From TrEMBL:
Location of region: Disordered: 386-410
Name this polypeptide is given: Uncharacterized protein
Length: 504
């Protein structure tokens, strides 16, 4: 398979679509390495007067909810390792192309789910490597349907060089316990990035919440409150100076420190200056200005965009020009206290030589103070709306399950629309001979294991012949198995040898 086929199954589109999968899959265990191809290895036929008709086979896959999609940094579809996967419902639909009738499939079909990652071997051949899944990955089809529930990813993309994973769902047809399952149809999902609960994305969300706590509306009473700091020998009043600002941030007795830019520029007006980008803030009345500042603060992001200073929305300037030299040491500490303010839209600067021309300073602080008091209730409503938005977003990202339909309803619906026609099975598909030997390796191991299990369970002897099975209820031709344990070994020999060398 060509290396460039990797792009066929890795669309970075927001459109979620299950596409046909005909790739090689490799499974590596402690002692063995098995490779097989997922192309269909069996064909279904509809007998007719004109010969045989190929039915239309469709595998419908539905999920109880979508995976998370994130545009940032091209992350695309993603999920948490500790979350259950969405319930995945599978339905096999077989249609007669001449009449559009829905046909009942042959019996003994099961679905299997796998988690894989794309890999290119040293020989430059592309294949999918199985990485494992937690939970029951094999389900029998009942009434043409099954539901995978309670599954989890077994590992994270971080453990696999940040590679994204794919989900594969394959339908297998196995008419007898002595017959190797044949692939009927297979589908593969878009790529999914899997991280852990302690991922960088969660840390980013925590940082965002912490930053928003700085910007939450502060009580009006704090504007007039006289703050003090407790020192070993006395209690010192916090003044409107660089030293006072430093004492405010470092005071252990002030448990809930207000760090809102509007509060800082009013309370410490001698050393904190607030500058706004005139391209963003259209200056009208002070009340509208305060509301706009609050909206901008809530919408500020920290995506490491590294906007230039003239592209910021707000600049918080620390002015130490009038500070006594002995207090210059406080500036370094202030930088540490104010560092969390810096993000894509806000910047803290100390004694700038020149600020961008598109910024203007807020100077009428008395008017801003009164405006803040007047619109305080509206600011609280903004906070409530922002919290509701975050809660809704978090809820959207949490796995939710749909109620499973009652089995009686499913049976009734299927009986109403499905026609019981005889469907013949032909296979294995001759066009898939290139994967014959890899199938046989797995076939041999499975059949040998089944042989021992059957002999232990039934206590049969070599001369004992398995009796005729009851014809399948869906109208399949009678299936008569007269196979001894010795004949089973003969079957394995036939499978492992090329067709021209097979024993008669």
């Amino acid at each position: 398979m060509k290396e460039n086929q990797k792009s066929d199954i890795a669309p970075q589109d927001k459109q979620w679509e299950w596409i046909p999968c005909q790739y090689d899959v490799k499974r590596i265990s402690k002692d063995t390495e098995t490779t097989w191809n997922l192309s269909p290895s069996v064909q279904l036929k509809i007998p007719s007067d004109q010969g045989q008709i190929d039915p239309v086979i469709d595998l419908k896959i539905e999920q109880s909810r979508n995976f998370i999609y994130t545009n940032k940094n091209g992350l695309g579809w993603n999920w948490h390792k500790s979350w259950n996967l969405p319930d995945i419902g599978v339905e096999l639909e077989i249609t007669d192309p001449t009449t559009d009738e829905k046909l009942a499939p042959p019996g003994k079909i099961y679905a299997k789910i796998q988690i894989v990652k794309p890999t290119v071997s040293p020989m430059k051949t592309f294949h999918l490597l199985e990485v494992g899944v937690k939970g029951n990955q094999k389900m029998d089809l009942e009434n043409n349907k099954c539901i995978f529930s309670g599954l989890k990813f077994n590992t994270t993309s971080y453990n696999h060089d940040h590679q994204k994973f794919h989900i594969i769902i394959t339908l297998y047809l196995c008419q007898s316990k002595f017959e190797f399952p044949q692939i009927l149809i297979s589908r593969i999902s878009p790529p999914i990035f899997v991280d852990s609960r302690k991922s960088a994305r969660d840390i980013e969300q925590q940082n965002k919440q912490k930053l928003q706590s700085y910007f939450d509306p502060f009580p009006i009473t704090t504007l007039e409150k006289q703050f003090t700091t407790t020192k070993p020998q006395n209690t010192e009043v916090i003044t409107n100076t660089i030293e006072g600002l430093n004492n405010y941030f470092s005071a252990p007795n002030i448990r809930h420190k207000v760090k809102h830019p509007v509060f800082l520029c009013i309370k410490f007006s001698s050393c904190i200056k607030l500058y706004l980008n005139t391209n963003v803030f259209k200056f009208q009345d002070s009340k509208s200005l305060v509301l706009t500042i609050q909206q901008v603060l809530y919408k500020s992001t920290n995506n490491n965009v590294n906007n230039k200073l003239d592209q910021k929305y707000i600049i918080l300037c620390v002015d130490s020009s009038n500070t006594i030299s002995k207090f210059q040491q406080h500036l370094k500490k202030l930088q540490e206290f104010l560092e969390p303010f810096n993000n894509d839209d806000i910047e803290v600067v100390i004694d700038p030589i020149e600020l961008p021309k598109n910024f203007t300073q807020i100077t009428d602080l008395a008017d801003i103070k009164q405006a803040y008091i007047d619109v305080y209730d509206k600011l609280l409503q903004l906070k409530k709306n922002e919290q509701q938005h975050d809660d809704n977003q978090e809820q959207e990202e949490q796995p939710r399950k749909k109620k499973k339909p009652k089995e009686q309803e499913v049976v009734q619906n299927n009986q109403e629309k499905i026609i019981r026609k005889v469907i013949q099975i032909q296979g294995p598909n001759i066009s898939q001979q290139r994967s014959h030997h890899t199938h046989v390796i797995q076939s041999a191991e499975m059949l040998i294991e089944q042989q021992h299990q059957y002999l232990d369970k039934e206590h049969v002897k070599e001369e004992h012949i398995i009796q005729e099975e009851k014809p399948h209820q869906f109208g399949l031709p009678d299936l008569i198995i007269q196979q001894t344990a010795i004949n089973l070994n003969k079957f394995l020999l036939r499978a492992l040898l090329p067709q021209q060398q097979q024993p008669q």
